[in-house]
């Protein structure tokens, strides 16, 4: 009688569509294979395979199984009478392999000047060869392989239940083309690379300013400015325009704070400027993303022009044949004054228009005078006309027109009082209508001028020189302004975001001279001081590209022609964002029998994004932590830890880092157990695993003995044992006719 060994294989693939699977081929000495598709409810309703071996066989090699699958095997003896009851199922798992296929539907698109978003779909589940743990996202500059460099890879977790995966690659070069690839990986390693895709980061503002900025004066009101484009590698886009900002630097009253102009080419002519005036000129290139860094200021001067008329003129009788004429400076010099032209008009019956000679005049004749200033360009308009008549009696007179006097703090100033008169006049000085007394800092000079030593801001005011004799009197008024550095501004914060701080300030004392520029000085805590120069007309400014959750210190300084003034009080502002806050454990950790999934995305902080994670793991019985993840990117959604022991207690330490600091939280969990003839698998909690913040626990003995999944197999095993005893009895009865024993076995897959 021929006796055979019957092999039964049962498999269910959790990764296959609709819960069905195609049974793997199983060869057993040429014996036919039977496969049935179905669900896992029973051996009769799922896909199984059978093969027979000759009697006396006590082992078998099962080939062509699928990687990372759980199989159940049972053995039955078969003789000419029939098949014995099967043995208890034996559960085995095949070893996993690296994924056999690459991610599909890979697409890449630039989302910012520093970021590219990748989207893709997971490979066919039949090619996973185990539980996928995530993906490696590689990128390199397009064409960089020619220089021997390879891809840089980031690690990305899987999205539970998602049909499409996505990841944003950050810290890329601006307006640059990159090549991207992906690899799926499991506990055994990475699979093949995907097809390469390319994408270009978006444009950004130019990082470098235009170079070779030069200017030349075309006329007294026009300048021509030329420049070259920024270096192409720092342009970060296609240049669409240039912005010129030109600001007058001379302290003329009424000059505008600054103007700007947008042009398309590498040169521009700017007009309607002030004559013989210094201008600060900067140029910045612009792309579609905005205006970039401005060039360092250069100083350009318009050409000279004829001056304006002297603002005042005065004639004083100096004797019977002379008149002293004095005048003030023109309102605007429009250049360097090279000479003054003094005109005199005599009575009609006398010679007219004698130049600069005001002596040898005819007594008791009325003369008129006016004056004009000249530069190298020519003569300017004339002043007002004044008149005087020479006389034998000389009243006290002062041949000066006075006016505004400006002096820097700490310097010495002499206020002149040139006088005439016969007899000699009496000279006195008044300050703001109060007599000037003899002090250490006030000295009356031999020519009756007034010397002020070491001028201070308090010395500013009106100074009057009075001259008088018995024939009359005269006076001259000076308005002294002592220029000091600007006063301190009142700086305060208007608020902050995660990356910006906005400050404003009230107008400060200009120190007696127009403010030329402002400097805002700031640093992070800790950090080095940095400085940004602001236009003089601003009263508010926003610092950008700051770090979230960080303290910053700021102060403001104003500058005039004397130099920098007093700094404002230092203010402290904090950008929005805090250290990562740990989520509750039920949102963070999901376990099954052999894996634990950490949902990193549950740490998300909208104000201060997480930059990195570090995962550590240890059995509860151990004191040593093992770093299982390396440094994971902050954008990673989840991380899967595989090859865990069923029904084991573990402790998990997770550190999340953002610019505001680190947060480390410890969790405890227990992996699930294998129940009955089923192995619990999959992501997420499946009944039986317990989580706790300080420790985990497995199922209790009471839970086990009331669990149908435990009781039903026991009952079935008892029935099978009785059947085996009956079969053995029949075998012994027929042993005289048979020379071999038959042992049945079968194999079943659960995944």
Give the arrangement of secondary structure elements.
Elements: E1 4-10, E2 48-54, E3 70-78, E4 90-93, E5 104-110, E6 116-121, E7 134-141, E8 152-156, E9 165-169, E10 177-186, E11 189-190, E12 197-200, E13 211-217, E14 223-228, E15 241-248, E16 259-263, E17 267-270, E18 278-287, E19 290-294, E20 298-301, E21 313-319, E22 322-327, E23 339-345, E24 367-374, E25 379-382, E26 386-388, E27 394-398, E28 403-408, E29 413-415, E30 419-422, E31 426-431, E32 434-435, E33 442-444, E34 450-452, E35 461-469, E36 472-483, E37 491-496, E38 501-505, E39 517-524, E40 530-534, E41 540-543, E42 551-559, E43 571-574, H1 585-588, E44 589-591, E45 596-598, E46 612-619, E47 626-633, E48 639-641, E49 649-658, E50 661-670, E51 691-692, H2 701-705, H3 708-733, E52 745-749
Parallel strand pairs: 28-36
Antiparallel strand pairs: 1-2, 1-3, 3-52, 5-6, 6-9, 7-8, 7-10, 10-11, 10-12, 13-14, 14-17, 15-16, 15-18, 18-19, 18-20, 21-22, 23-24, 24-25, 24-26, 27-30, 29-34, 31-32, 31-35, 33-34, 35-36, 37-38, 38-41, 39-40, 39-42, 42-43, 44-45, 45-48, 46-47, 46-49, 49-50, 50-51
């Amino acid at each position: 009688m021929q006796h055979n060994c019957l092999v039964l294989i049962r498999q269910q693939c959790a990764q296959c569509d609709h819960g069905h699977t195609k049974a793997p081929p199983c060869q057993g000495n040429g014996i036919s294979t039977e496969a049935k598709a179905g669900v896992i409810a029973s051996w009769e309703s799922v896909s199984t395979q059978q093969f027979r071996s000759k009697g006396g066989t006590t082992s078998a090699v099962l080939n062509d199984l699928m990687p990372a699958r759980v199989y159940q095997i049972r053995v039955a003896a078969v003789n000419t009478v029939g098949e014995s009851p099967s043995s208890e199922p034996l559960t085995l798992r095949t070893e996993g392999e690296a994924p056999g296929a690459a991610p599909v539907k890979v697409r890449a698109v630039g989302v910012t000047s520093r970021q590219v978003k990748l989207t893709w779909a997971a490979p066919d589940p039949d090619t996973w060869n185990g539980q996928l743990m995530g993906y490696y996202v590689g990128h390199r500059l397009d064409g960089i392989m020619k220089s021997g460099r390879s891809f840089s890879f980031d690690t990305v977790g899987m999205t539970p239940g998602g049909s499409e995966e996505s990841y944003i690659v950050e810290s890329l070069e601006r307006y640059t083309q990159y090549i991207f690839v992906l690899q799926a990986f499991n506990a055994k390693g990475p699979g093949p690379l995907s097809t390469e895709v390319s994408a270009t980061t978006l444009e950004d503002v130019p990082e470098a300013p235009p170079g070779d900025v030069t200017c030349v004066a075309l006329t007294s009101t026009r300048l021509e400015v030329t420049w070259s484009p920024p270096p192409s590698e720092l342009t970060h886009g296609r240049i669409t325009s240039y912005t010129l900002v030109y600001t007058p630097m001379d302290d003329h009253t009424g000059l505008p704070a600054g103007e700007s102009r947008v042009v398309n080419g590498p040169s521009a002519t700017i007009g309607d400027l002030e004559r013989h005036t210094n201008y600060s000129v900067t140029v910045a290139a612009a792309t579609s993303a905005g205006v970039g860094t401005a060039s360092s200021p250069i100083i350009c001067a318009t050409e000279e022009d004829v001056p304006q008329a002297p603002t005042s003129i005065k004639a004083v009788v100096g004797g019977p044949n002379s008149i002293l004429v004095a005048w003030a400076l023109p309102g605007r010099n429009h250049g360097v004054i090279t000479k003054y032209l003094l005109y005199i008009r005599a009575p009609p019956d006398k010679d007219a228009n004698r130049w600069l000679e005001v002596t040898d005049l005819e007594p008791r004749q009325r003369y008129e005078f006016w004056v004009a200033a000249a530069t190298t360009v020519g003569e300017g308009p004339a002043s007002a006309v004044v008149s005087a008549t020479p006389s034998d009696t000389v009243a006290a007179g002062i041949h000066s027109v006075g006016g505004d006097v400006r002096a820097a703090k700490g310097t010495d100033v002499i206020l002149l009082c040139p006088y005439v008169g016969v007899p000699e006049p009496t000279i006195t000085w008044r300050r703001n209508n109060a007599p000037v007394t003899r002090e250490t800092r006030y000295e009356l000079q031999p020519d009756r001028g007034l010397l002020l030593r070491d001028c201070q801001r308090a010395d500013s005011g009106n100074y009057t020189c009075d001259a008088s004799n018995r024939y009359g009197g005269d006076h001259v008024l000076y308005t002294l302004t002592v220029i000091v550095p600007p006063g301190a501004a009142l700086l305060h914060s208007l608020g902050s975001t995660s990356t910006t701080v906005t400050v404003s300030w009230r107008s400060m004392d200009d120190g007696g001279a127009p403010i030329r520029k402002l400097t805002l000085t700031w640093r992070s805590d800790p950090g080095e001081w940095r400085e940004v120069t602001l236009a003089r007309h601003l009263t508010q400014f926003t610092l950008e590209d700051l770090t979230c959750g960080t303290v910053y210190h700021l102060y403001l300084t104003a500058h005039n022609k004397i130099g920098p003034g007093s700094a404002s009080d230092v203010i402290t502002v904090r950008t929005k964002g805090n250290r990562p806050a740990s989520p509750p454990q039920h949102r963070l950790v999901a376990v099954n029998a052999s894996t634990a999934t950490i949902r990193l995305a549950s740490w998300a902080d909208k104000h201060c994004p997480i930059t990195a994670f570090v995962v550590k793991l240890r059995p509860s019985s151990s004191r040593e932590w093992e770093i299982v993840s390396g440094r994971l990117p902050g954008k990673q959604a989840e991380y899967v830890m595989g090859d865990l022991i069923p029904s084991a207690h573990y402790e998990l330490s997770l550190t999340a880092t953002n610019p505001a600091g680190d947060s480390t939280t410890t969790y405890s969990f227990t992996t699930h157990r294998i129940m009955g003839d089923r192995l619990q698998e999959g992501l997420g909690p499946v009944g039986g695993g317990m989580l706790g913040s300080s420790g985990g626990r497995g199922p209790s003995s009471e839970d086990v003995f009331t669990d149908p999944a435990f009781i039903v197999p026991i009952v079935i095993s008892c029935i099978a044992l009785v059947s085996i005893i009956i079969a053995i009895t029949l075998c012994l009865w027929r042993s005289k006719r048979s020379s071999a024993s038959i042992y049945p076995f079968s194999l079943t897959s659960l995944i």
